[in-house]
Amino acid sequence: MLFAPDHYNGFFYDVMPPFCLGVGATAIGDFASAAGDLLVPTELAEACAHAVINSGIDLAVSYNMQVDHGFAQPLEFLLGGLDRVPVLPVFINGVAAPLPGFQRTRLLGEAMGRFLNTLNKRVLILGSGGLSHQPPVPELAKADAHLRDRLLGGGKQLPPDERERRQQRVINAARRFTEDPHSLHPLNPVWDNRFMSLLEQGRLSELDAIGNDELSAMAGKSTHEIKTWVAAFAALSAFWPLAQ
């Protein structure tokens, strides 16, 4: 099971769920990541969706989920490709307000974990996303007409030259940041280490009280990607207490 974010490559403001399970999924190959279909077991994904919804979590499903490097890179780097092992891909919104909070994300992960624990299978649970960071990500409230069109769904099938320009802007911003740490929102290693310690110690519920605005101010607007980590550790807790 892979919990991962999106970066306005598969999910847009025409329909922006907080959570979505891909019953079928295809990676677009952005930032030189792998492209193609993920190996999603259809019946297992459908059963997972029913179980999670019946547990009280309003989970969206997609039979044609488009995903980006947030999903592709973990599968490529850790497992050798998109189709090496069956995967249940779970999108968690980490960029487009209104965002899910820590508590709801934790409850999603717990529900997913309870389902996985019924399967009598060997399961690898992954969370994909960054710690404190804030690259140049567009915001609907500040968008001009062209960008607004892209955020409302026009960006799903970008022309290759436009996608390349978009990716290059992010790469250039990252390079500037290595030379001038004030060019973007600063990293926050104190928060990063505190967060990882809470995960390690199984103290996930202590994150519930941290609001989205507070998290953005502390560690950058893209730090909401760490909610994928929370979901993954919460799912793991269905198998044994994390504190052990």
From TrEMBL:
Q: What positions does the domain Extradiol ring-cleavage dioxygenase class III enzyme subunit B occupy? A: 2-237
Instruction: Name the SUPFAM superfamilies for this protein.
Output: LigB-like
**What's in the keyword line of the UniProt record?**
Dioxygenase, Oxidoreductase
One example GO MF annotation: ferrous iron binding
Gene3D superfamilies cross-referenced by the UniProt entry? LigB-like
NCBIfam families, alphabetically? PRK13370.1-4
Q: What is this protein called?
A: 2,3-dihydroxyphenylpropionate 1,2-dioxygenase
